[in-house]
């Protein structure tokens, strides 16, 4: 079930994918297989909250999302999900989502820079 993370061009799952109304979950057997792989991984924390030390995700949540994949390539996106993906009604909706993501990322960077400047001036 190896997956080449370097060649995959789509983004990985993000926390807001859990609340997006168009989210797609994997079948239970796919979730169980993904979680089994994770729980045997050297990057998986064995104690609660059972996160991945590479992507810092809660694996019981991430492993349910069709677009999610392992950051070290142990499992990939759900193939049927990729074939039938209908996250957005049209390209305009996809573009708006991408713009919103970039805006949030830019705001986080600006906030961190402002915090660093305040610390330097203190």
Give the total of beta strands.
0
Largest sheet entry: none
Number of helices: 4
Q: What is the approximate shape?
A: globular
Q: Please estimate the helix content.
A: 40-55%
Q: Determine Rg (CA atoms, Å).
A: 17 Å
Which properties best describe this structure?
globular; 2 domains; mainly alpha; single chain; 122 residues
Short recap of the structure:
With 122 residues, the protein is an all-alpha fold.
Structure description:
The chain is mainly α. The protein folds into two domains: 1-87, no CATH class; 88-122. It is 43% helix and 0% strand. The chain has four helices and no strands. It has helices at residues 28-39, 59-62, 79-83, 91-121. It starts with 27 loop residues before the first helix and ends with a helix. The relative contact order is 0.16. The model has no long low-confidence stretch (mean pLDDT 79).
Topology:
Blueprint: H1 28-39, H2 59-62, H3 79-83, H4 91-121
């Amino acid at each position: 079930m190896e997956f080449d993370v370097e060649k995959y061009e789509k983004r990985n799952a993000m926390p807001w994918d859990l609340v997006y109304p168009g989210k797609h979950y994997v079948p239970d057997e796919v979730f169980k297989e993904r979680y089994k792989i994770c729980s045997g991984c050297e990057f998986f924390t064995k104690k609660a909250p059972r996160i991945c030390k590479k992507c810092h995700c809660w694996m019981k949540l991430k492993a349910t999302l069709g677009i999610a994949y392992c950051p070290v390539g142990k499992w990939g996106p759900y193939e049927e999900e990729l074939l039938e993906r209908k996250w957005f009604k049209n390209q305009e909706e996809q573009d708006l989502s991408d713009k919103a993501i970039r805006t949030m990322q830019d705001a986080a960077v600006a906030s961190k820079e402002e915090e660093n400047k305040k610390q330097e001036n203190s």
